[in-house]
Design goal:
alpha+beta; Hydrophobic Seed Protein; Hypothetical protein af1432; 4 domains; seven-stranded mixed beta sheet; 22 helices
Length: about 475
């Protein structure tokens, strides 16, 4: 069902009759929503204008708001109206000149038919437009039928050769929409899988991130990548888990467990990445029914795999950290000090990610939970967090300047001393004592403990 946006009428009034069309994911998602009975979500407003030269288009749009022309190969007019920016483009046709998503000869202008503009898009379900302001559907390639059939199909067998990035988009859409690839798409994708290496690494990472963060069931897209050979080109490390059997606590092989776990994880990029990669080190550490040290091997592999596709450094480091520590023992009977040490080791900001992975890991085993130890351990940790004890040296009630002043006052450091390794050792010693007894974290107690620490140090070497 067409749901007009207020800007549709504004733009249509400024342009010649029958020249304005809504295009892009908005049209597809409106039809998807109508087919499934769910409300559509309009994120981007993209338009194509036919029969109007660029200079005239700019002139007609200028009274509506700020107008900027961007794009080297083809012009897109960005119009900002009442704080909202939309893209208004002339239709264009493309001819592939090589194996790459940028290797195209582009012709853009008022004489290019709308059908040619739609034909250059990736899948039939995206080769749709709506004439505005009436809202009638333009569907020259059967995209609406594909949406109703929950199918992803290509217009030409050369689709993936012309733009290999489309293979990753196919997997992303399959996972996000639970659409099935057509036989033609599967054949073409398998034939072009080796061209994945021609895609920029950042673009590969972007599409993988969308698949993982936006799809209710990421395994649908990952299985498509596996069966067509694309995953072997991107992350062959994951395929090492296919057929690798596990112990009696798992119903699936390593690959199947990764798929079940990623589907069970919260729909955030970091949680999904950790779920997908948490056992990636198992095939390389298998020793009978055991996988000793797989978490450490897996953390190193995770850093390599995410670095390959230019994932942000913070994301890479956090996911690798969670993978490295995911084999923690969830013992609800630990002492308070041991719980605090666990929090220190994992890091307070990583705890919920770690717990989310453990819950997904259990769900992904394919077997019922053995007991409630994990839930009780999580409750212990959250209760300790609520007490707000010191979880790092920075949380101590005194700092390095206090240690330096104390060392100068007792003559173990000269005037003007600015610190050395002894300062760090003193703070670490105080932090350990506060971990054992959080009530010691007040300035008076810590200064007294500092004096005792300095009394016990032998010599004054700054080693």
């Amino acid at each position: 069902m067409y749901r007009p946006h207020p800007l549709d009428a504004v733009l249509a009034a400024a342009l010649p009759a029958e020249s304005l069309y809504a295009v892009g994911g908005r049209v597809r998602d409106e039809l998807r929503a109508a087919a499934t009975g769910t409300p559509p979500s309009v994120k981007d407003l993209d338009y194509v204008v036919t029969g109007v030269p660029l200079d005239e288009l700019q002139r007609r749009l200028a009274p509506l708001g700020q107008v900027d022309v961007v794009g080297a190969a083809f012009a897109v007019v960005k119009v900002t109206i009442d704080g909202q920016t939309v893209d208004v483009a002339l239709p264009r046709r493309e001819r592939s000149t090589g194996a790459g998503h940028r290797d195209f000869d582009v012709q853009s202008g008022p004489d290019v038919p709308l059908e040619a503009d739609l034909a250059r898009r990736d899948f039939r379900m995206n080769m749709l437009a709506r004439a505005l302001p009436a809202g009638s559907l333009v569907d020259p390639y059967g995209g609406h039928a594909d949406i109703l059939a929950r199918r992803i199909d290509i217009l030409t067998p050369q689709s993936f050769v012309e733009d290999p990035l489309r293979m990753l988009r196919a997997a992303q859409f399959a996972a996000r929409f639970a659409f099935a690839p057509s036989p033609a798409l599967l054949e073409a994708m398998a034939g072009a899988a080796a061209l994945t290496g021609t895609i920029s690494r950042e673009r590969v990472g972007d599409e993988l991130a969308k698949l993982l963060a936006l799809a209710p069931t990421p395994s649908i897209g990952l299985e498509l990548l596996r069966h067509t050979g694309v995953l072997a080109e991107i992350w062959p490390e994951l395929l090492e888990g296919v057929g690798v059997e596990q112990n009696a606590w798992h119903a699936y092989d390593v690959w199947g467990h990764a798929m079940a776990t990623v589907d069970a994880a919260p729909a955030t990029l970091e949680d999904r990445l950790a779920a997908l990669l948490h056992d990636v080190g198992k095939p390389r550490t298998k020793d009978g029914p055991h996988f000793y040290g797989h978490e450490h091997v897996g953390a190193d592999l995770t850093a390599t795999m995410l670095g390959r596709y230019r994932f942000p450094t913070g994301t890479l480091e956090r996911v690798a950290h969670v993978v490295r520590h995911h084999m923690y023992v969830a013992d609800p009977e630990l002492s308070d000090a041991a719980v605090r040490r666990f929090i220190r080791r994992i890091g307070p900001t990583n705890l919920e990610h770690m717990f989310a992975l453990r819950r997904a890991d259990i769900a992904g085993s394919g077997l019922p939970p053995r007991d409630d130890a994990n839930a009780r351990f999580e409750a212990r940790v959250r209760a300790e967090l609520a007490r707000k004890p010191a979880f790092s040296v920075a949380d101590l009630a005194i700092g390095g300047d206090d240690v330096i002043r104390a060392m100068i006052a007792r003559g173990t450091a000269p005037p003007g001393f600015r610190g050395d390794a002894r300062v760090g050792r003193a703070l670490k010693s105080l932090f350990e004592q506060v971990t054992e007894r959080p009530e010691r974290n007040d300035r008076t107690s810590l200064l007294r403990l500092l004096e005792h620490h300095l009394d016990t140090q032998v010599g004054g070497a700054s080693t």
